[in-house]
Design brief:
It contains eight helices and ten strands. It is α/β, with parallel strands linked by helices. It has one domain: Aldolase class I (TIM Barrel). It has an eight-stranded parallel β-barrel, surrounded by four helices. Strands 9-10 form a two-stranded antiparallel sheet. Helix 1 links the parallel strand 1 and strand 2. Helix 1 runs parallel beside helix 8, helix 2 packs parallel to helix 3 and helix 7 packs parallel to helix 8.
């Protein structure tokens, strides 16, 4: 189980996440996001990070040339495409690609709330996705499933209905494609353990769920990662009892 802390905007936030055990940090380059950070500032952060922490750039409908330029000057190691991009247009950049799939909660709110079934259009969307997944094999290394609300970019704070049969089917199709499943959308220290046990993703991604007053909160970051480890490695979370009998 790996953890990505997204929406990093300062070296202090980055080091807080790394010291808590984060495997990846996300930097948002979408200008409309309240977590936007400029490439020069990202470079000042990434050059001071340990070597094996992934530096993920989050882009929304940027051209391949612009993604390449920002990636180079920011010291990124992974590219996350969060818009309507075609991954094939970015595969030549030579870095692992993550493609985000957004589930619109506003359109399917009532069906989600009832945990019954989503509107009939979702089946068509899923069928199209299966076709896309086949084309993404070998180009995309991770698929991030996020909740979406009209007018907001990421960090909605609203979780997906993980146990909904239609959503479970979506997760199953992603796993069957052989591409790593990254779970996002409304995760926080209180619900991430249940999310991991229900979905069994390879990676979880959090942003607003570990913030207080718009900034990463060290206590919440530590608690979030601790809960992730408890869910992924339950035996390790239980202290071992040793016999007092000498060997």
């Amino acid at each position: 189980m790996r953890v990505k802390i997204c929406g990093i905007r300062s070296l202090d936030e980055a080091l807080t996440a790394v010291n808590a055990g984060a495997d990846a940090l996300g930097f948002v380059f979408a200008h409309k996001s309240k977590r936007y950070i400029d490439p020069a500032s990202v470079w000042e952060i990434t050059k001071k990070l340990p070597p094996f922490v992934a530096r993920v750039g989050v882009f929304v409908d940027f051209s391949p040339a612009e993604v390449e330029r920002i990636t180079r000057v920011s010291g990124l190691t992974v590219i996350q495409l969060h818009g309507d991009e075609n991954p094939a247009d970015y595969s030549h950049l030579g870095l692992p690609l993550i493609k985000a799939i957004k589930v619109d909660l506003a359109e399917k709110k009532s069906a989600f709330k009832n945990n019954d079934r989503m509107n009939e259009d979702f089946g068509d969307v899923e069928e199209d996705l299966i076709t896309e997944l086949q084309g993404w094999q070998g180009q995309v290394q991770g698929i991030l499933v996020d909740s979406a609300v009209m007018g907001q970019f990421g960090g909605t704070g609203q979780p997906l209905p993980w146990s909904n049969p239609e959503i479970q089917s979506l997760f199953m199709n992603i796993k069957a494609s052989g591409i790593s499943l990254i779970l996002a959308g409304g995760l926080n220290p209180e619900n991430v353990k249940d999310a991991i046990e229900t979905v069994r993703p390879e990676i979880v991604d959090v942003s607003s769920g570990v913030e207080t007053a718009g900034k990463k909160d060290a206590r919440l970051v530590n608690k979030f990662i601790t809960e992730c480890k408890k869910a992924a490695y339950p035996a390790a979370a239980t202290p071992r009892k040793f016999s007092k009998t000498p060997y």
